[in-house]
Design goal:
heterodimer, A: mainly beta, Porin, 14-stranded antiparallel β-barrel, B: mainly beta, 24-stranded antiparallel barrel, globular
Chain lengths: 284, 667
């Protein structure tokens, strides 16, 4: 029993180092290549700059019951976004693990729009870890992101995760330090191609690619892949009124498929997501 | 310190102010970006920056300049220079540099790049002093003083300090004072101390200059440098070498005799030099006598080698200080007819108080060296021919080149260089693979610059051979290099730069306990995205990948670097820079080099290797016109290492950080 707990804990620690499994369901189905897209409430965990593209209130919940078939790795996220006249504020929360090992996080993000085409955002995270019969620790870390509309249909984005290199206790590198930069291009209004490079200070660079296609008003199809570690991902989103219900899955060479899902509720959004953002930014 | 960074970044984000800033420094940085490409040697010298700062501080008069003057501007080619002059001859003097935009077939992109180097002296705008005015004008109103004071300090302790091999303190200091009176007189003093040196005046330099007084064109007393022709015989401490601009660096534009204002601590003269001008003729004479750093063979009293580092930290280094005397004198004659033809000759002699020991490498020996060199430059139609041949009484080093502008948008250049192994280069800085060595190298360079509607393409191909053994190889070796650089503006605030470099060279590897000369192939690919909104924010993302391959030694290594940079111009006259670099390379062989922004006057080129991150944060603040304050904090962190660097520079731990501060006063 003790041994298996130890193994699970080691897994948890390595898993938590893989920032590319950040929520939500849309992000995962695009293999997290969406740094330059970042147009929903879960951007608070990814590129916070994207949040102020949205001029409406939004709330989301995401749950991954058993990553790699292990319910001990289950994780859940909630997020809320509030646009104001001085910029957008967002709140996020995470819980991850099981009764012997648990990590929780609270995030507060601020994002603003300069010159109508350029967005910058930052997230302050407070993350705690508790290992049963061992101890607890909590730390602050900071993310920073930027997003620019180079042309009406081309965006450039980047984010830095944990720029202050915070870590638990006296051990270094318990929280991944990551840079992610990429492009997002709308081939047609309904189809966007996303490409990004993700470099964790400790691991090889990962190239990520994803396609988001709004095939009809109500349905979005998504797929993506990345290397290091190699994975294939796919997902579907159902958009009805102001609700989006998203499902995503991705593969792991040895551990098979992982499934997750999320719901996003938008308040006061008049059109669909893309149309509303375009209208707000004055893009035809 | 980490939290300081966090706080500053937050402040930087929250203050949304749109303002303008003094643009000289920004321009210098952007131009350096265009012309240079990271070389494979770490450097932190100031000569390069010094060079550009000087030409920006002394802009070229658009109404007086000839072709030779105009082509000193980085990125400027012959044909564009000729167009400017033709326009001036046809329509009369320029009233402002912006008038260049009216020349229809002059490239807009080029104009934007060259404007900072140009001025127009309009007689009507100048205050006219009558006799009576002049007597009442106080003497100090024509006086301009600039003071630059810099300190920098490593926050970690290097091995040389912990084991007390270094005699002095960790701090590095630099102080430079320059006083100009009117346009004709200048005096300057510089003192510098490197980390580990004892005295703040470890290196000191002084000069006094007088210009354009009667037929004396230029007179310098103190420290100076000389640049002539293509630099085979005489050149200063800095010269451009192969870079992102395929055409510009090949043909050198000399600046004759200049005050020495750098702290590189070698390759300068101390004495007096003067130039006299009669119409198109310029006659110069120079004399220098000073002590240089050298390691001496005590038994034979011969010079083993001349030291160029300028470090006096350990007992060995201190012993080298000023241990040999160097006397240098000579003269030159130069003739030019406006815009078409320039020819010149120089002769000089160098004497050391001790003979140079017979060196196994280049057989430079004796205590007495003589050089005679002839150079030329001819501009005709769409062609420009240039070259130099330098004779040291043993052999002749030569470089001959051609620049050809096939059309407005296509410029082609080619140059053949031949620097024999027994050419004893002391003060030359010839164009070549081993930048500045001007010895034991034969090479053929071709480059093309093509301006198209979709962007600017630079391409060069260089073949070189070292006929005799070099430091790296015990036999002759050879190689070739190809660079393709493409720059495109998708729209007025977004730029993409793509670069590919292929470098094939012979190196020595030990295979099965046997030293062998084998082929080494290094390929580099780079993508850079630059986004800029009007005078407010500039973002730069770079992704660079390289592969280092030695097939026979089974070495196949990769390197990757990603950086994100932001430059914000906030409030009035405040510039904030931040860059975070992630790198991951298999070893030092696949190291990725990057230039970074630093205090005004410094431009380091650093090697990133291993696995880790580096970030820096730089602030430049100009509260009032008299003063500019700059400060930089930088940090390199490699999570898996237990020590960084090696030898006396070794740091125990995985963090290397530094803080530096500079104040520029000008009144």
């Amino acid at each position: 029993m003790k041994l298996s707990v130890t193994i699970i804990i080691i897994y948890l620690l390595t898993f938590s180092a893989y920032s590319q499994y950040n929520p939500g369901a849309k992000q995962i189905s695009l293999s997290n290549s969406d740094v330059a897209l970042s147009n929903d409430v879960f951007s608070v965990f990814n590129n916070p700059a994207g949040l102020s593209q949205m001029h409406w209130r939004e709330a989301g919940i995401f749950y991954s019951p058993a990553p790699f078939g292990m319910s001990e790795l289950s994780n859940g996220f909630i997020a809320y976004h509030e646009p104001t006249s001085i910029g957008s504020f967002s709140l996020g929360g995470m819980t991850y693990g099981f009764d012997l090992f648990r990590e929780t996080r609270i995030s507060i993000a601020y994002s603003n729009n300069f010159t109508g085409r350029f967005f910058i955002g930052t997230t302050v995270n407070y993350q705690t870890v508790s290992i049963k019969n061992y101890g607890n620790d909590g730390i602050f870390y900071l993310n920073l992101g930027g997003l620019a509309y180079i042309a009406d249909d081309l965006r450039l984005g980047f984010y830095l995760h944990n720029i202050n290199r915070a870590s638990y206790g006296n051990t270094e590198n318990q929280i991944p330090v990551v840079i992610n930069a990429g492009l997002s291009y709308d081939v047609i209004k309904e189809l966007s191609l996303n490409f990004s490079v993700d470099k964790d200070i400790k691991y090889k660079a990962s190239f990520q690619f994803g396609i988001n296609y709004d095939i009809i008003e109500y349905v979005s199809l998504r797929t993506g892949f990345s290397n290091e570690p190699s994975r294939f991902s796919a997902g579907i989103g159902i958009n009805y009124l102001n609700y989006s219900l998203d499902y995503a899955m991705f593969s792991h060479n040895a551990l098979g498929f992982t499934h997750q899902a999320g719901i996003i509720v938008s308040f006061g959004r008049e059109d669909n997501r893309n149309k509303s953002i375009r209208k707000y930014l004055g893009i035809e | 310190m980490k939290y300081l960074f966090t706080i500053i970044f937050l402040i930087a984000i929250i203050i949304p102010a749109y303002t303008q800033i003094d643009s000289t420094v920004l321009k210098t940085e952007e131009i350096l970006d265009d012309v240079l490409i990271e070389t494979e040697s770490e450097s932190e010298d100031e000569d390069l920056y010094d060079y550009l700062e000087e030409i920006i501080a002394n802009p070229i008069d658009l109404n007086k300049a000839d072709i030779f003057e105009l082509t000193k501007i980085p990125g400027m080619d012959n044909v564009s220079a000729e167009k400017i002059i033709k326009h001036r001859e046809k329509f009369g003097n320029f009233y402002s540099a912006n008038e260049l935009f009216a020349i229809r077939d002059l490239n807009k992109n080029l104009i934007e790049k060259i404007i900072p180097f140009l001025k127009v002296e309009n007689k009507f705008d100048q205050p006219q002093f009558s006799e009576s005015d002049e007597s009442t004008t106080p003497f100090y109103s024509k006086l301009r003083t600039t003071l630059r004071s810099r300190i920098s300090n490593d926050l970690q302790t290097r091995r040389g300090f912990s084991n007390q091999r270094f005699a002095g303190s960790k701090i590095k200091t630099y102080n430079r004072l320059q006083i100009k009176y009117d346009k004709n007189y200048q005096a300057g003093v510089l003192i510098e101390k490197d980390p580990g040196e004892v005295l703040h005046t470890d290196f000191s330099s002084f000069h006094f200059q007088m210009k354009d007084e009667g037929f004396i064109n230029n007179l310098i007393i103190g420290d100076y440098t000389i640049e002539l022709g293509q630099g085979l015989a005489l050149w200063g401490p800095f010269g451009f070498s192969k870079g992102a601009d395929a055409v510009f660096p090949v043909k050198k534009s000399s600046r004759f005799i200049k005050p020495y204002t750098s702290a590189a601590e070698y390759n300068f003269f101390r004495g007096a030099a003067s130039t006299f001008q009669f119409d198109g003729f310029r006659l110069s004479g120079f004399y220098s006598n000073h002590f240089i750093d050298a390691s001496i063979n005590e038994a034979t009293n011969e010079i083993i080698s001349i030291s160029q580092t300028g470090f006096h930290r350990t007992a060995t280094e201190i012993a080298k200080k000023n241990s040999a005397q160097q006397i240098f004198y000579g003269g030159s004659l130069d003739y030019r007819t406006a815009n078409v033809f320039n020819i010149g000759a120089v002769y000089y002699k160098v004497k050391f108080d001790k003979p140079l020991e017979y060196g196994s490498l280049y057989d430079v020996t004796g205590d007495n060296f003589n050089y005679l060199s002839v150079y030329y430059n001819l501009n005709y139609y769409k062609f420009s021919l240039f070259g130099e041949a330098s004779y040291d009484l043993t052999s002749v080093a030569s470089l001959n080149g051609l620049q050809f502008a096939a059309s407005d948008n296509l410029i082609f250049t080619t140059a053949i260089r031949s620097y024999p192994r027994n050419y004893k280069n002391l003060f030359g800085f010839g164009f070549g693979e081993r930048s500045g060595k001007t010895n034991n190298e034969v090479g053929f360079y071709s480059g093309v610059k093509l301006r198209t509607k979709i962007g600017i393409l630079n391409l060069y191909y260089d073949i070189f051979k070292f006929p005799f053994k070099t430091n790296e190889n015990s036999l002759s070796s050879e190689g070739d290099e190809l660079l393709i650089d493409f720059l495109t503006n998708l729209n007025h605030n977004f730029e993409i730069k793509l670069m590919y470099k292929y470098e094939n060279k012979e190196i020595t590897e030990i295979i099965d306990n046997e030293s062998m000369i084998v082929r080494r192939l290094k390929q580099t690919a780079r993508t850079e995205l630059i986004y800029e909104t009007e005078n407010f924010i500039r973002l730069k993302t770079r992704i660079e990948y390289n592969n280092f391959l030695v097939r026979l030694a089974d070495k196949n290594e990769n390197g990757l670097l990603i950086f994100q940079e932001a430059r914000l111009l906030l409030l009035k006259k405040l510039a904030v820079y931040g860059r975070i670099i992630f790198f991951h390379t298999d070893s030092f062989n696949s190291a990725v080099y990057e230039f970074e922004n630093d205090l005004i006057g410094v431009m380091p080129n650093l090697a990133m290797y291993g696995k880790g991150i580096r970030w820096y944060f730089l602030i430049r603040y100009k509260p009032i016109n008299l003063i500019t304050i700059s400060a930089k904090y930088s940090e390199t962190y490699k999570p898996d290492e237990t020590s960084l660097s090696s030898g006396d520079n070794e740091i125990i731990g995985n963090l290397d950080n530094r803080f530096s501060l500079q104040i520029d006063l000008s009144f």
